[in-house]
Amino acid sequence: MKKIALLIASALTLSGCAAAENTTVRLAAHDSFVISDELMAEFQSESGFDLEIIRLGDTGSLTNQLVLTKNAPVADAFFGIDNTFQSVALENEVVDGEMSAIDFSDVCFNYDLDWFADSEITPPTSWRELGQEQYRGLTVVTNPRFSSPGLAFLATTHAGFETSAEVFAYWRSIRDNELKVSGSWEDAYFVDFTRYGGDRPIVLSYASSPAAEVNEDGSAGSKALTSECFRQTEYAGVLENAQNKAGAEAIVEFLLADNFQASVPSAMYVYPANTEIEVPADWAMFATPATSVLGVDLNFSENRERWLKDWSDVFDN
Amino acid sequence: MTTNLELFVTTALIALASAVVSALIGYPIGNWLASVSKSYRRFVSAVIVVPFLLPPFLVGLSLLPLQSPEMNSRFGILWIVGAHVLMNAGFMARIVSANQVPSDQVEAASLDGAGRLSTRFFVELPQQLGGMLSAGLLVALYSATSYGLVLTLGQGKVQTLETEIATAALRDLDFNSALVLALLQTALTLCFFYLARSIGAEPTSLFGEQVPASNGSRLGWILGTLLLAAIGFVFIQVFYRAATLGPGLVQNVQNLGGKGARDLLNISVLDASINSLRNLVVAALIALPIAWLIAGRRKTSFGVLLPIGISPVVFGLVFLILSGYLPAGISGSWLLVPMVQSLFLIPLSYQVLRPARQAVSLEIKDAARLDGAVGWQMFSQVEAPLVRKPLAIAGAFVALGSLGEFGAASFLAYGSEATLPLVLFRLIARPGAENFGMAMAAASLFVLIAFVVVWFISRESRTELQDR
């Protein structure tokens, strides 16, 4: 018995020996977060902290893992919880202080211009048309459980119809029209979208994504359906129980500062939250914001679980 | 929406079907195995037992490339049962071959005019039934706790108690539902475990000495050859895909030092392997000495074996919830994973070490004590040399069990502390040949290591201690 106790005590002592690294600040982010090497070096030299980025999947996975590890968080700060998952983070008290808006973008369907030109099918003009026969097997969306564009689009459909029955009917119609549901935006865009070798020319993405698809001759490669989109805002903040709170505050401040804000259009294809920052003109030409938005006034906290359950009833049976 | 009862029934049916089919196939193979020549027997025994020793997740990963991506849940269940049979038929065969009826009984029956089939069904089978039944219940238990395999081969379309515990806790953050499911899971597996123990199940004769049997089995020869071919096919296609998918074998292996296409992973596969090896060492340092000490006690301890009857997913869930109440230094520490793993590795090693320690003659130990041997001396110079093989087997079980452990790690290992199975799962969860090629390369290495370990400990020796 004494020997067993000694063994356990040694193990526990070992764990205490791992000293906290306060010269490193850990930023938890989703898989689509991009920061250039120059900006990382700038942050590190200005703040004196080394930056470690920990990617935790899509926005939903990121939020869930931060909630599950809130007593001993895997990071000091986060980037990428958006207005659709914000209620989960706030209800579970994972944030120390306020969440700061870093960028915004509009969740809209995009379609491959070249593919439609070759196919002689008239491209859609609205998400409401995707249940029509000529678009059978052409669309890919992302799972709203984990993907913020997926949840944003789910919210859009709830805001776009008067009754639940109409929402159900719409989702059933696009399901029956051979809709593909991908695990994440990364998979949908870079694997399933026809511009990257996939078989789906209509992809749920952002109003700014066409700026990444400009052909060599300067012509547009894809187009967004910019009516009735969802405006998504992404936030950053300090995590409750962060080991390096000073470092966390420093990185959040850096994300709000002009240099990082100016980088977000070309790096992540989103608009900076700081509206005084000028976006590149040629980028803005192809990355036009939505002409109309739906769903931003919805109560995500109250309705999220019910919408997801209803969606599961359509897709998981 | 699947109800808790449906989940319970699905899990129980998968477990029982796996056990029954494994027994039906394993029985004739075991009888054939006992009749083949010693050198050939070593090779066959090693190959058919490799899938049993591989982590369920890895078996699922190896079979995944053979599945259609558009598979539905019914086929998913068939694939899962098939994978369980591939894993456990060899184990059943070994149990049967180590429990052969003495040849004089068989000869006596033959002299009395009984045909081969009659001898098999009326003389041999009744005596082997007890061992097979208890082994079958163990197979049911293992099949009810193969979370990684169900997740991989079910492609998210097959729901069992374990997958829904993970969904409720990790995806929906609904710990109340997760705990209810965990109780149902524990009730099911403890039931299998208790029944198996009460009939006298001991899986330790896996590497025991075998009594050659004269009454072979033609059916066993056919099924044994098919099983060998199936196992060979599964692993060869893993090696093949490692060599041909994505950028090819050399690049796939080199990519294990990277983070996957588009930097999918937080840490490289190599770093995750180092995490897993580190966890293995700590788990072994905790589990083996504790199991050794308890195995030396006079009375057999049932309590120490109890964790075998509980799913690692349930352990992971319970410790995830508890970590909210532990000091941050412990709950956020990487040590939590090996500590939780050791909870079910201790009984695993105990099962191997107990009969070994009990069989060391008391006279030898008393004589050594009279000569002044105490503590470490008694272990290193008296007992250990006599039980070298069971120690190696226990070490192998602990090593392979910890390295491939998926269920508990899913709940407890995050960010840069991810383990090898978790990063492999992330690689295969994303479409793309480059990531899949990396996963196949890592799986190939794991299979080769497992085969070498099994080959090494399959050596039969005269000082073998057989478990009854």
Describe this protein's structure:
The complex is a heterodimer of chains A (317) and B (468). In chain A, strands 1, 2, 3, 4, 5, 6, 7, 8, 9 and 10 form a ten-stranded mixed sheet that branches. In chain A, helix 6 (148-160) packs across helix 12 (300-315) and helix 7 crosses helix 12. With 317 residues, chain A is of the alpha/beta class. The termini of chain A are far apart. In chain A, 41% of the residues lie in helices and 20% in strands. The radius of gyration of chain A is 22 Å and the shape is globular. Mean pLDDT of chain A is 88; it is low at 14-20. Chain B has helices spanning 4-33, 38-53, 56-63, 73-98, 103-111, 116-143, 147-153, 161-171, 175-198, 218-244, 249-255, 269-295, 312-322, 328-331, 336-359, 362-370, 375-386, 388-403, 407-412, 420-429, 433-457. The N and C termini of chain B lie far apart (46 Å). The model of chain B is unreliable at 461-468 (pLDDT under 50). Classes of the chains: A alpha/beta (317), B mainly alpha (468). The interface between A and B is large, with 41 and 34 residues.
